Amino acid sequence: MECTYMAPTKRRGPKLAQDSTASSKLHRRRYNAGYVVDLERRAEQLERALKEHDPDIVLPESTNRYVAVSLQNNSSRPASLTSEVVELDDDFTDLDLGEKMKNLSLEHDKSLSERCFGPSSGLALFMSALSTKKKLIGSLTTMQIHDYSNLYPWERATADAEKACYIFPDNDLITSLVAIYFETMNPILPILHRPTFVKNVADGLHLRDENFAATLLFVLAVASRHSDDPRVLADPSSRLSAGWTFLEFIPIAKKVLLRPPCLNDIQQTVLSVMYTFGSSVPEFTWMVVGLGLRYAVEIGLHRKKPKRHKPTVDDELKKRSFWALVTLDRLLSLYEGRPIMMQEEDFDVELPVECDDEYWDIRLDGEVRFCQPGNKPSKISYFNAQIQLSGIMSVVVRNLYSIRKGQDKLSLPKKDGDRIISDIDSSMNAWMNSIPDHLRWDPDRDNKLFLYQSAVLYSTYHMLQIYTHRPFLRPGSSLSTPSLVISTMAARSCARILQVHLTRLKIITPHLLIVAFMSGTVLAMNIWSGKRVGHPSHADDLVGYEQCLATFIHASDTWMIAGRSLKIFKGMASFETTSALDSTSIPITHPQDSTAPIWSSYGAIPDTPYEQVQPSDPTYLNDYLPTYLRTDLPLDQTNENSSSSFQSLIFDIGQSEMSSGPDTINMWTFAPPGFNFAAWDTYVTNMSLEDEHSQ
User: Fold this and answer.
1) Residues paired with residue 30 on neighbouring β-strands, in sequence order
2) Which residues have C-beta within 8 Å of that of residue 564, sequence separation ≥ 6?
3) Residues 468, 424: contact at Cβ < 8 Å?
4) Per the domain annotation, does 133 fall within a domain?
5) Are the beta carbons of 585 and 578 closer than 8 angstroms?
């Protein structure tokens, strides 16, 4: 049957407001003037070398692909996003290098042609020289370089060492864990094609292919955290050991140092992150993601394919795996307070095709046609939405959390904090408006898969709100009060999402653990500061904080990171709570009983741009609060009274909602800039000691 539906290619990444911002100017591949000058200098050196070798040689006139660049006074003034930037059309030079290496008559190991080399590489210059020589002479002689391109005997001995001896569980357990994996983790990081993977397992590929065997073991390990089967435990007395047996003999880097990475290697790094985030060393995941991205770039996964290329199953899975690594890199970098490895200008690969696994039409020649029915929402829509949100996350890290802020590093015109937040806020609003209907938040949604994806999307969105406003929680900032309000509302929203998620789905993921830690921290700071100044804690803060605790309690028997979070949160809880941290008293209600009325009144994202909202505006909170928390105020107040009215509004929301606002902001001043475990553990310990001494 001929496929009649072809999913359109979508542009990647969200754009910020269409002004000269970092995100709107850096979404395309660019080379600056200095780079072009360097290329021209190297080309001149090559021409001189050829002339010295053969004085009679006639070189063809240069055909410059680049647009003209003005270099006058280039060193006397800093470059900016509006200065001379060399834009390139679709450049597949680095992709063509591999093909040329395959066709070149060299005695070399084929691995060289499987690796990706950019246009600035020495190999690119070498191939350019050979191309020029071929035009002049008409042919190329075989080059004997095998002594340097092949592995030496001692290297070959390591590469050809005995195969790993993997031990697999019973077939029924394999079948069960594979099914669990595709129901829990693949919906949010879809790096595996279920029909192909299941068929390969059924055919016993893991018994013949070492690389696929390792991938299967990673899948079994990740799924083990969601299984009640005692056979997944390395230590029968501890569920924290779930899955460890499957990974015990799998080295992360393996022998990839002696050969080009393959799809299985890339997938294994993603799976490793899923598993090790719940281990006693979650920080290790950030390094694994970096390794995976290096693997991906090594074989050119960061580049889009030429239009003439016919997609295969591996092509689409490589694309998905690359994007999974990019999103994880951004999330973990933000969470750990570390730099993001790859920026938007470093890759141009397309977004994944929004076609579910069951609608892949795989031909005999390996080509795949994507035949998603037009009236059926795709499960991959979530992944693309998450990718786009992570693009905004990258801008937040670069402009608000980098050692040298983005505007300084890029020599941008200096911007005020409210302008930066306005740009990010506009992008987040645009992103929210672009979410397809089947992913919009509805706690009563019948389709649990889409509810799951929606919970991860919306909680990540609110988490990013907190990260965006965290740098402005400091005394003296005109944005401190609105930033505190928005952060508080975002934290409460996350807590409600967690409540619905744990009630209906009970699936724990790294995303949700990070969300619980961040939102719980914000709410704890509110409660803690309120106690310090003698004000009662707001009920929503207490309920939200306890929901975050419930998340960690629920996950602490299988996720070590949840146990660490629980320890820190108990240290924060020097205030009185209704449950006294007793997990048995934390209510887990059904959404139809309590959460549905709340969420049914929760609007989308306020239409009022952040730049138009100032603390003196009495309608500010009405723009940013859920409707059930809004307070009606007259809109015709005079300017003299508007500021005091705003302050009164803050203090009057739901039983002195922000009554401890100034003290809370002071506490945030000395709090860790990010949400790193060790930093917060130290901060909480010091604050507890300070409270003890003050009593």
Assistant:
1) 87
2) 677
3) yes
4) no
5) yes
Instruction: Examine residue 519 and state whether it is found in any structural domain, yes or no.
Output: yes
AA identity, residue 90: D
φ, ψ of residue 334 in degrees (nearest 5) = -65, -45
Amino acid identity, residue 179?
Answer: A
Residue keyed to tokens 């060193």: 75
231 three-state secondary structure: helix
Query: What distance in Å separates the CA atoms of residue 37 and residue 562, rounded to the nearest whole number?
Result: 52
Residue 476: inside a domain: no
Most confident of 490-494, 633-637, 688-692: 490-494
Q: Which residues contact 566 (CB under 8 A, 6 or more apart)?
A: 549, 552, 553, 556
**How far is C-alpha 85 from the geometric centre of its chain's CA atoms?**
28
Cβ atoms of 425 and 400 within 8 Å: the answer is no
What tokens were used for 96? 């063509």
| The token pair that represents 204 in the structure block | 């016993």
Specify the pTM.
0.72
Is the predicted pLDDT of residue 466 greater than 90, yes or no?
yes
> Into how many domains does the chain fold?
1
Token digits for 491? 């934290």
Cα separation of 632 and 617, whole Å? 13
DSSP states along 161-183 = SPPP------HHHHHHHHHHHHH
| Whole-number pLDDT of residue 80 | 36
Query: How far is it, in rounded angstroms, from Cα 36 to Cα 119?
Result: 11
Domain that holds residue 613: 505-694
Distance, first Cα to last Cα, the chain: 78
Q: Is residue 547 part of a domain?
A: yes
Distance CA 51, CA 45 (A): 10
CA dist., res. 313 & res. 363, Å (int):
10
Separation between Cα atoms, residue 10 and residue 12, nearest integer Å:
6
5-60 residue pLDDT tens: 555 545 444 444 444 444 444 444 444 555 666 677 777 777 777 666 666 665 55
Amino acid occupying residue 45: Q
C-alpha span between 441 and 385 (Å, rounded): 14
